[in-house]
Amino acid sequence: QFPGCRSTPEQLAVLRERRSDGFPHDEDPGLRVCTVCRRLPLRGGAGDQAAQLGAEGEPLDAAFLAGIKEELSSIEEGEKSIQALSQVFRYYARHARQLSQVLTDWGKQCFPWELLHALHLLDDILLMDNTGRYKAELAERVPPIAVSAFRKIQTDQEKREVVRILHAWQELRIFDAALVESIRASIRSAGGAAVRLLDEPVAMDDDDDDDAPPAPPAPP
Question: Which residue intervals make up region (Disordered) (predicted)?
Fold first, then answer.
């Protein structure tokens, strides 16, 4: 198994059933790995970290971008799947401008049921990217995707998830309040019954409930 592989044992088991010999690694076709790890570089150490944080340099080649687009087109909803792909994007943060355009183009082409996947991936990249490059590149690109997601997603539950992500971006200062408010304003301008969801209190994560004090005992 490739060092640092984020695939779960279940995902690897499915891969072995569908493709027992795995995929050839981009840099070494003789090395067989899972679908995500084939995009990660083989080199490691401080030199690579410096390269990751350095200047953008040469653009990523067409074959690599084609592979990334293939991964995006087959992304599955699930924390492990999204985090694994987010890791690839964040490793290549010095190419944030080029990869942000890939993300934007993909977001525009998503089917309605894929839009929440797109937002979750964007959210993970923005939250975990410690270079700040994706934040700068995506600030103007994210609003149309977020607005489109809210309008096209069918269920109130999924629309509430869009609202929760917007709330998190503002609270965690991923984007400034003015930008998040502009997204909300664009959603409101379209009208519709679902606009009311923007005014609902944002539900806390279940994990937060564990820290809440116990309820007082009922009176006798």
Answer: 199-220
